[in-house]
Amino acid sequence: MEQVFSYIISLGASVMMPILFTIIGKSLKSGLYVGVGFVGLGIVTALLTNNFGSPLSEISRLYDLQLGVFDMGWPAAAAVAYNTAVGALIIPICLGVNFLMLITKCTRTVNIDLWNYWHFAFIGAVAYFVMDQSLAWGYFAAIVCYINTLVMADLTASKFQSYYDDMDGISIPQPFCQSFTAFAIGINWLLDKIPGFSKLDIDAEGLKKKFGVLGEPIVLGVIVGALIGAVAQLDIKKVLFLGVTMGAVMELIPRITKLFIDGLKPIAEKTQEVVQKKWAGKKVYIGMSPALVIGHPTTLVASLILIPLALLMAVALPGNEFLPLASLAGMFYVFVMVLPYTKGNVVKTLIVGIVAVGIGLWFVTDMAPAFTQAAQTVYAQTQDPAAKIPEGFQAGALDFASSLFGWVIYKCVNNLAYVGMGVLTIITLVMMWINRQRIVADEAKSKNE
User: Fold this and answer.
1) Is 185 exposed, middle or buried (0-12, 13-18, 19+ CB in 10 A)?
2) How far apart are CA 148 and CA 123, in angstroms?
């Protein structure tokens, strides 16, 4: 079984997910749209990492930024996640947990976003290594993360569906995105208490009206890309090239996410039909990839502004040792669950992003020794180049090491051991109980109506 799932995972998201969705939705065209979407997203993110890696490294050299945690990017985190005993069986185990939660009314989400199960495998792999390669600890950490993510997907589903267009019946059970929900709720509440702050209610469309063509994501992309080139002291030709490249990323991402929507919507509808027949017409959410909505205009604008700000924070924050480079392409995913709570307000959204990513830099730095240990062991066993750490550095990545979920689980396991296990178990049981109470009450209300 381990070999079967390892082989399936090795196909990559662009092959694995279309096959899965074609089988579920019985639509080859829809499955291929999803595959093309993943390929396109990979090409666009590669535009960022391939073209901006060297200029950002040059900035680090020019200004003598002594940051010892190397940004491995999410491919290294996924490689560590899936190349361990925990990762090899994470999909069937989590699907089993999902099924048990459905039949006990502890969740309404059916998580078919199988590729992103690497997030659960990653925190499980970290726990596995810091606890002397204990499978029990590894699976405990992964399952706790999975359960809490499913609950959060349920709790945020109505907000998500009401904010984004054409997302009825869909939830986002991805722990990196859901980790920013708490920041969004808390910071949004605080900002609403500031007198006169409501006057700064500018969404992406309002930005275009206020600043004209300068408010367009494509133009903002050109400006930010060129500024990065200028700070890196490149020649004018390279500065202009970086500007156009960043503009291209801003323009292409919404077009690619439309492919996901075209492919996933009929699959979601088909899955809804099958699940509702199985569950006697009860309300069920289909857990989908956050790639569906990263092309939202406010997400693009906020991500674009946050990229250079993240670099400045990395240098300015005391105690931080992580310089985000390869991970910058994942900045778009920070805002998926933020926008439903800030209602697309660019100012609020950006403030949430600054606070969350700033704290996330400390999370990455704190988790770096454990990530390094895991990556070194995986590289020694598999020779996977994605897990190779440059000499003299520790390993880090914004996704998933900057996640609130991941960091809390890591600290409880690494620092508190069995006391931490007890704390995490209580939190998880309380979250399940709260969600079950909501589901039972909602079902009773539906029957009475």
Assistant:
1) middle
2) 13
**Mean of pLDDT over the chain:** 86
Question: For the whole model, what pTM was predicted?
Answer: 0.86
Q: Are 372 and 395 in contact (CB under 8 A)?
A: yes
* Phi, psi torsion values for 396, nearest 5 degrees: -155, 165
Q: Which residues contact 76 (CB under 8 A, 6 or more apart)?
A: 375, 386, 387, 395, 397
Residue 88 in contact with residue 82, Cβ under 8 Å?
A: yes
State the number of CA atoms in the 13 A half-sphere of 144 facing the CB.
28
Structure-token match 């990559």, residue found: 12
Name the one residue in this structure whose structure tokens are 């995913």: 333
Q: Compute, in degrees rounded to 10, the torsion defined by CA atoms 46, 48, 54, 58.
A: -160
Cβ-Cβ contacts under 8 Å for 438 (sequence gap 6 or more)? 154, 155
Contact 167, 160 (CB under 8 A): yes
pLDDT digits (tens, 9 = 90+) for 325-367: 778 778 889 999 999 999 999 999 999 999 999 999 999 999 9
CA gyration radius for the chain?
Answer: 21
Q: Does position 238 have pLDDT exceeding 80, yes or no?
A: yes
Tokens for 146, please give them: 């999975």
β partners of residue 111: 287
Using H for helix, E for strand and C for coil, what is the string for 414-426? HHHHHHHHHHHHH
Count of residues for the chain?
Answer: 449
H or E segment to which residue 188 belongs: helix 181-192
Query: What is the DSSP code string of 328-371?
Result: GGGGGGGGTTTHHHHTT-HHHHHHHHHHHHHHHHHHHHHHHHHH
Helix (H, G, I), strand (E, B) or coil at 108: coil
